[in-house]
User: Which sequence fits this backbone?
């Protein structure tokens, strides 16, 4: 199924992705990093991850070409076995790995995998975002770490078939442009946490066959169907939208619109959803904050009501803080004096233009 075509048919076309300029810049930077047989890349791996090993004067770069993804996967496994036995530095440029996702094979293509002289394997991620003064954007580094963790899991499947099984390093190498130049620099990234999370998520995934069996009889996702019928078919498959979907799924905009229509708190992020406990909708959260619903003994409800009281006190007029319904700003909006209180205001400094009250008379 082409989800991009399906999203367009639903009236919510996907708009994420890199610009052509970003692709060209990324490809040019990657080519520079891997130039001359990967000399610079191997130097960065040695410098950041394996300084005790012999410096890589040169490294082998095996040919991984084959027909189809299955053929490339088998050729990659063979190259890894040969490189592990060679006892030298080896760079695998764009190897093909396979990983079972809900009992269906998914083919993955990391930027590079380096085999160390001791036979261990390291995943290398090459990104075009800059590393300024040795640090990069935390969100982008996190996304790169999660991506690399998937490659580590796939490599572990390959290693498990060898005897003895080589070590797949849990620290990957992130290569980025240095400052505002096109020169490469690198940093070691520990992906043990991301690997554990990804493995648990993969173990809990439902098989595609099980999802299909649960669908109503005659469900069809053909883009040519009438919009109402196509929407009903898509809605028959449960979806849990989160903001992270916008960068990964073609149907994210459709799911976001549906999530907003339901008032689901997951629209605001998974971390907030986790903190709200049993309160799954925005209406439930607001009702709990106002005191019209929710169990007062629930810590989440108690926290919401206390936050609402603090907000009311901050926005209420001076001297009447906390009055009124929790979570509802006091009349008058802010600390502005109204009615009879206006007459008690301190005089304005000379030279300031007079301000008129609600009645039109100047405020003195």
Assistant:
């Amino acid at each position: 199924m082409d989800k991009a075509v399906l999203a367009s048919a639903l009236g919510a076309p996907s708009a994420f992705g890199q610009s052509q300029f970003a692709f060209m810049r990324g490809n040019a930077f990657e080519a520079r990093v891997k130039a001359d047989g990967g000399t610079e890349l191997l130097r960065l791996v040695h410098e950041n991850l394996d300084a005790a090993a012999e410096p890589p004067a040169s490294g082998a770069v095996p040919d991984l070409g084959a027909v189809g993804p299955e053929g490339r996967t088998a050729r990659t496994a063979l190259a890894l076995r040969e490189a592990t036995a060679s006892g030298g530095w080896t760079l695998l440029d764009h190897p093909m790995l396979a990983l079972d996702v809900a009992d269906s094979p998914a083919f993955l293509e990391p930027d590079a995998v380096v085999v160390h002289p001791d036979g261990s394997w390291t995943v290398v991620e090459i990104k075009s975002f800059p590393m300024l003064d040795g640090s990069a954007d935390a969100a982008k580094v996190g996304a790169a770490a999660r991506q690399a963790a998937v490659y580590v899991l796939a490599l572990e499947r390959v290693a498990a078939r060898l005897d003895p099984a080589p070590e797949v390093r849990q620290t990957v190498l992130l290569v980025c442009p240095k400052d505002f130049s096109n020169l490469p620099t690198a940093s070691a990234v520990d992906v043990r946490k991301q690997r554990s999370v990804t493995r648990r998520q993969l173990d809990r995934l439902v098989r595609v066959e099980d999802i299909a069996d649960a669908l109503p009889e005659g469900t069809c996702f053909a883009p040519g169907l009438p919009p109402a019928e196509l929407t009903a078919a898509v809605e028959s498959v449960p979806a849990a939208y989160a903001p992270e979907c916008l960068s990964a799924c073609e149907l994210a905009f459709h799911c976001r619109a549906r999530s907003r229509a339901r008032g689901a708190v997951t629209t605001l992020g998974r971390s907030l959803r986790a903190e709200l406990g049993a309160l799954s909708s925005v209406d439930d959260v607001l009702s709990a904050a106002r005191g019209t619903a929710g169990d007062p003994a629930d810590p989440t409800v108690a926290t919401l009501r206390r936050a609402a009281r603090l907000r009311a006190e901050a926005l209420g007029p001076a001297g009447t803080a906390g009055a009124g319904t929790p979570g509802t700003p006091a009349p008058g909006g802010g600390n502005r004096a109204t009615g009879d209180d206006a007459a008690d205001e301190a005089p304005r400094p000379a030279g300031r233009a007079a301000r008129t009250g609600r009645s039109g008379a100047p405020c003195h």
User: Anything to note?
Assistant: Residues 34-204 form one domain. Residues 319-364 have pLDDT under 50 and may be disordered. The longest helix spans residues 138-159.
